[in-house]
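Quick one: structure tokens for this chain, please?
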Amino acid sequence: MTFTSAEEKRVYTLNLFARIASRYEFINQVMSLGQVKSWRRAAAEEACVPPGGWVLDVATGEGGLARALLRRWPGVNVVGVDFSREMLTMGRAHSVGWPIRWTEGDALRIPFPDDSFDAAVNAFMLRNVTDVQVTLAEQVRVVRPGGRVVCLEMTWPRHPLFRPLFHVYFGGIVPVLGWILTGHLDAYRYLPRSVQVFLPPEGLAATMEAVGLRQVRYQFLTMGTVTLHVGVK
């Protein structure tokens, strides 16, 4: 999918998540072959939230990463922000009994003051925003000095043998699965295309450094299909 403007992409993604919200977590589990929970655990581990600290889950969706944070760091304060009301509705429904604070808001204009959180995390959202650098800069803004920004993203693997297999699965099978399970073929065609055109891991690391993060590092997960980036303010 090619967008002619940032606003066109924003509207498209907003409508996309509204349409797939009710099946979002189930599809994630199917597409990742059950690996998405382990990826979230890895991201939660890297947040390093101090006792009683505050962490912001940007584009929280249905709250999978927010719950992973609470499992890893019991007693911390987790705030989930998302621009999709439908996703927030599913998040609340799937997180009954979990002390998550839910907020509707745009990742490009996070509705919190400077230095409000000990960490900010995001999972599989940066490729969907209209400006990656502004989105990261906003997360840096709301994190206290010494706090972390953690980014979890899909990556097109580089291994010469695994890459073509992943292309068949992610580029061919996943859209069909998404269509069968949700009825929205275009949404799951968009997914692999968005990964293909997104920044490579070293490019995302450079962008994190450009917005003021230091000690930026990244690691590949699950044969290079997912990358976990971490930076310190």
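The CA atoms of residues 44 and 69 lie 5 Å apart.
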